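Help needed: design a sequence for this.
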């Protein structure tokens, strides 16, 4: 019974968080950065930082252009 009540309260808090994030999407990004800060406090922590591929596309295209124009080396 106590476990079920704890699950119910946790689900209510998650619902409340979802409402805040829906209204303020930047809240999710700020929470993500806060989590990275907390994880980085330990020197024994490895952090995998996911990033959208669109972020790297300009660099990849520039690299491909430089390779094709410099292929006569």
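Sure. Designed sequence:
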């Amino acid at each position: 019974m106590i476990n079920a009540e704890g699950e119910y309260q946790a689900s209510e808090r998650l619902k409340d968080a979802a409402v805040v994030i829906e209204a303020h999407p930047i809240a999710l990004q700020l929470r993500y950065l806060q989590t990275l800060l907390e994880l980085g406090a330990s020197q024994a922590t490895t952090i995998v930082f996911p990033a959208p591929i669109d972020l790297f596309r300009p660099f990849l295209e520039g690299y491909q252009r430089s390779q094709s124009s410099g292929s006569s080396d």
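The radius of gyration is 22 Å.
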